[in-house]
Amino acid sequence: MKTNNETITNPLDTQPIGRTFVKYLIPSLVGMLLMALNFVVDGIMVGNRLGPVALAGVGIAGPVYTIFVAMSLWIGIGGATLFSQAMGAKKPEKANFIFTQSLILIFSATLIIGLIAFFFREPLVYALGANEETYPYASAYLNVMLLFGFVFTIENATSVFVRNDRNPNLAMAALIVTAVSNVILNYIILYILNLGVAGAAYGTIISAALGILVLGLHFFRKNNQLKLVRFKLNRPLLLQAIMLGFPSFLAEVGISVFTISHNVTLERLAGTDGVAAFSVLNYVHGVMLLMFLGMGSAVQPLVSYYHGGRQNDRKVHTIKIALKTAAGAGLVFFLIGQIAAGPIVSIFGNFDDTVTSLATTGIRIFFFAYLFMGANFVMMTFYQSIGNVRMATWITFAREILFMLIILFTLPHFMGVNGVWLAIPIAELLVLTSIIFYVRRHRLTA
């Protein structure tokens, strides 16, 4: 147990804001970049080794992975926000109880949901957008994810708490180990052992387990504040965690809605070629999304801590730095899409002209979204971290579900496949406009 004096002299209370933000931002971005590259390499290996139909099948099963991550973030981010707020208020005993309760509930919930879904796996695969061609691949991948998905939910949630306990470098190291081991395992599984997409799914699970082992090193540190304590369900704290974490859950569910709705719409408009083209775009989008998630991972521990300690000036200064960083990153991502769309598509495999053309055009149009997405993501994290769940939920729901679905169900009737690619950019712009109106009517801390 740390002394009260050690708790009071937390470096977050005294270090310059810019330096502190960079200290959290760089490990988060490096870790997320490696995870993103790992995500892309998975796609490259599957696409080159097994072909575009297998790639489309894995993409169809992907939302299940996303749902499990959503469950871990729902309780994990909500619990970690309460943890940092309690630490900022100098209440370490409460913080440790929140940590213990969060991990137990995440493990239980994802294990139970995975087992239930496993018994309904066949209709589930078709509901996700599979057809006769893609079903075998989507089903093989899905079966593994449902049975063992609890492994990466524990890894994901533990990483969030370790980062909130002032150890972003170890959280980064765990992501590095997870990413590198996954690439190595998938190469062995796909190219040497020839075990197909089910083997690739097992590689993802094993690499997540290795990440958990790395994160376990945090509990041997002298300044570790994370401790497992005696567990007894505390309903008020659980409800607070669920409420605070709901925007993160909704964000991950939104990714699944995005993937499923685009798969279904493109399958209707362009068949398997359209789904394969979207799978390529979605892999690339995953890289950019993880970069913005890295920025949010840097913002959340700091803003939650400053909010708990009522350090409003440091809180506002942090979010202003994060917004400038997100704007710069979004511009860079947009330019990459305009300049290098063709080469990006080509690295996923030697596709026919139809798939290549659809994917290249899709990247160039879709990447307009990154001009607005970074600011939206940062502001959602900010409002979530200070407990303004209503605004955080609005940002997430509007950009990933409401506006996207309205546009997706209308614009393709007039513009065809290009209308599909435009759904997210227009949705992001509309949401950013709503945030600007809100900030002008309320204080930034409201």
From TrEMBL:
It is a multi-pass membrane protein. Its main location: membrane. The chain crosses the membrane at residues 21-41, 53-83, 95-120, 140-158, 170-193, 199-220, 241-260, 280-306, 327-351, 363-382, 394-414, 420-439. It comes from the Bacteria. Coiled coil: none annotated. It is found in: Cell membrane. Keywords: Antibiotic resistance, Cell membrane, Membrane, Transmembrane, Transmembrane helix, Transport. Belongs to the multi antimicrobial extrusion (MATE) (TC 2.A.66.1) family. MepA subfamily. This is Multidrug export protein MepA.
